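User: Here's a structure from my thesis project, written as C-alpha cells. My advisor, Dr. K., wants to see whether a designed sequence matches the one we expressed. Can you design one independently, without my sequence as a hint?
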C-alpha cells in the first residue's frame, strides 16, 4: 500500500515495538505472547539475536552469575552443564527460546532505530529505521542493554601501529595468537576471563593494569546426570535450587551497604591473592588499594595463577605511545608487539552511548537533554515526559551482587501492568508523574550514600562527578515487592486528541 502524495510506502504499525533482541527483548516478547498480545515487533540492529552473548565470543567468555539464576524462570533450562555457563551454552539457550516460542517471525534483523518521536495528539511513537522506513508503535520497549558499545581508549600513535588490533567483544578468531607478543589493555570482567586462556598460546603476554581488580574464587562445578534428571522431572527441585542460589547471592548485599563488614571479606580476598601468586611483589601489585566492592568484584579461579607463568608480565606503568611494531610505557621502556587487545569493557553512561539516538518525548523534549545532569527514571523503566516509553535495565537497576534476569522479569511484569492499565481505562498513553520520579531518585541516591560503591573509587557505575546512575542500592527482593503491583496514582493517563494520526 502506498501514499500517493509522497510516493513512499505507508508506515508499518504495531502495538508494541521492542528495540533489541538480547535477553531482555526476547523475555519481553515471550511474556507478551503469554498475555495474548501478538501485535509486536522486535527490532534488532545486528543479524541475529543474543545481544551481549552474540557479540562476546572471546576465549573463556562465561557468566559470573550461576546458570540457573541467569535464565528465565518462565522458560527454564534444566540441563545446564555446570554452575557457571560459558558463552556458547548461553547463546544456545537464547537460540532455543527463539525456536520454542517461534519468535523469528516477530524479528526484523539489520534494523537499527535511528530516531524515536512521540506524537502527543495520537499518543504513539514514530520510529525512524535505518532502511528508510517508518514504524508507528503505541508502546516502545527499549531493551538494548547497557553493554553493547565497546569502550576503546585512544592511545597516542595507534594509527602508526601495523599489527592486529581488536576489542574483546569483536574478537578475531581467524587471527592466530601463537608465538605472538601481545599486550592486553584492561583488567575488567572480560580481560580476566580471556587472559588465562590466551597466556599458554602466546609467546609473551603483557597485562596492562591501570587499576587492580578484586578477584574472588568461583565455586565452579559440573552438574551430574542425576541432578539434570531431577531438575527436568521435578520442577520443585529446580526451583528449590534456584531459590538457594538467589538467597546466597542476596546475602552479598550486607557487606555492600555496611563497608565495615566488607573489610573482613577483603582480608580473605587478600589472602587469596597471596596464596595464588608466588611472587610477593607481584601479589602486592595485584592487590587493589580501594575497599572491596567499590568497583565490580570479579570471579575467577584462573586469573591470578596466570601471573606465575614466565611469559606473562604485569605492567602497571601507563602507556606513552605506540610505534609501528612496539608499545612504549611512561618509564621509557619499549616492548615489541604483534597484536593489541582491548579488554576495556563498554560505554555504560546512556548519555554517551545514546548520543546518536534522537529520542523526543512530550513538547519535543530530547532524552539526552532530559538526562543532561544524569540518567534518571522511575524504577529504571519509565522516564517523565516520555509516555509509553519503557526501558529494561534502565538507570539504577543494574546489579553488582545478583542476577539482572531477576530484575528484567520484575520490570517486564510491571510494564505489562502499565499496558493493561492503559487498555482497561480506555486511555492511550501512560507517563510517570514528575514528582513521583523525582522523589524516587532522591530516595535511591540517599540509599546509595554510605554504600561501598560510593567509598571513594571511580567506577563504571558512576558518571562524571561521582553520581551512581547504574546500580540498584539495596536488596532485589525489595525491588520485586515495590514493582509487584502498579500504583495508578503514580501516573498520568493520556488520550488522543482530534488532531491525532488515527483521527
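Assistant: Designed independently from the structure alone:
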Amino acid at each position: 500500500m502506498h501514499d500517493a502524495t509522497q510516493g513512499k510506502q505507508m508506515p508499518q504499525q504495531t502495538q508494541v515495538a521492542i528495540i533489541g533482541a538480547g535477553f531482555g527483548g526476547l523475555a519481553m516478547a515471550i511474556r507478551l505472547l503469554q498475555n495474548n498480545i501478538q501485535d509486536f515487533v522486535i527490532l534488532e540492529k545486528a543479524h541475529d539475536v543474543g545481544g551481549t552473548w552474540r557479540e562476546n565470543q572471546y576465549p573463556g567468555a562465561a557468566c559470573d552469575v550461576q546458570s540457573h539464576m541467569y535464565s528465565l524462570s518462565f522458560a527454564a533450562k534444566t540441563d545446564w552443564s555446570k554452575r557457571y555457563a560459558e558463552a556458547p551454552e548461553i547463546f544456545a539457550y537464547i537460540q532455543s527460546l527463539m525456536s520454542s516460542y517461534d519468535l523469528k517471525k516477530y524479528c526484523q534483523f539489520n534494523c537499527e532505530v535511528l530516531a524515536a518521536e512521540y506524537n502527543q495528539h495520537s499518543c504513539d511513537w514514530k520510529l525512524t529505521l535505518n532502511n528508510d522506513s517508518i514504524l508507528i508503535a503505541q508502546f516502545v520497549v527499549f531493551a538494548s542493554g547497557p553493554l553493547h558499545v565497546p569502550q576503546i581508549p585512544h592511545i597516542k600513535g595507534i594509527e602508526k601501529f601495523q599489527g592486529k588490533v581488536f576489542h574483546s567483544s569483536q574478537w578475531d578468531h581467524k587471527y592466530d595468537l601463537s608465538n605472538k607478543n601481545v599486550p592486553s589493555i584492561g583488567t575488567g570482567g572480560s580481560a580476566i576471563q580471556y587472559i588465562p586462556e590466551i597466556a599458554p598460546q602466546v609467546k609473551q603476554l603483557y597485562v596492562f593494569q591501570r587499576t587492580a581488580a578484586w578477584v574472588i574464587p568461583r565455586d565452579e562445578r559440573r552438574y551430574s546426570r542425576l541432578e539434570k534428571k531431577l531438575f527436568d522431572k521435578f520442577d520443585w527441585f529446580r526451583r528449590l535450587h534456584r531459590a538457594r542460589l538467589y538467597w546466597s547471592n542476596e546475602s552479598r548485599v550486607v557487606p555492600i551497604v555496611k563497608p565495615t563488614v566488607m573489610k573482613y571479606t577483603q582480608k580473605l580476598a587478600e589472602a587469596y591473592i597471596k596464596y595464588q601468586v608466588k611472587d610477593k611483589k607481584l601479589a602486592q601489585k595485584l592487590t587493589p588499594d580501594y575497599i572491596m566492592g567499590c568497583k565490580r568484584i570479579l570471579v575467577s579461579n584462573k586469573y591470578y595463577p596466570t601471573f606465575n607463568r614466565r611469559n606473562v608480565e604485569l605492567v602497571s606503568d601507563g602507556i606513552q605511545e605506540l610505534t609501528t611494531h612496539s608499545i612504549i610505557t611512561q618509564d621509557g621502556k619499549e616492548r615489541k608487539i604483534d597484536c593489541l587487545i582491548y579488554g576495556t569493557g563498554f560505554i555504560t553512561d546512556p548519555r554517551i552511548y545514546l548520543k546518536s539516538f534522537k529520542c523526543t518525548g512530550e513538547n519535543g523534549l530530547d532524552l539526552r537533554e532530559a538526562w543532561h545532569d544524569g540518567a534518571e527514571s522511575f524504577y529504571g523503566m519509565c522516564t517523565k515526559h516520555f509516555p509509553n516509553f519503557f526501558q529494561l535495565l534502565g538507570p539504577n537497576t543494574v546489579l553488582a551482587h545478583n542476577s539482572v534476569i531477576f530484575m528484567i522479569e520484575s520490570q517486564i511484569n510491571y510494564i505489562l501492568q502499565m499496558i493493561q492499565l492503559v487498555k482497561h481505562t480506555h486511555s492511550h498513553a501512560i507517563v510517570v508523574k514528575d514528582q513521583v520520579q523525582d522523589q524516587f531518585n532522591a530516595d535511591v541516591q540517599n540509599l546509595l550514600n554510605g554504600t561501598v560503591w560510593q567509598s571513594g573509587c571511580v567506577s563504571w557505575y558512576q558518571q562524571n562527578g561521582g553520581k551512581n546512575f547504574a546500580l540498584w542500592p539495596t536488596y532485589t527482593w525489595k525491588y520485586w515487592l515495590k514493582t509487584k503491583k502498579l500504583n495508578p496514582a503514580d501516573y498520568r493517563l493520556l488520550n488522543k486528541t482530534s488532531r491525532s494520526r488515527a483521527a
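When you compare it with your expressed construct, this may help: Residues 2-148+348-494 form a domain with the FAD/NAD(P)-binding domain fold (CATH 3.50.50.60).
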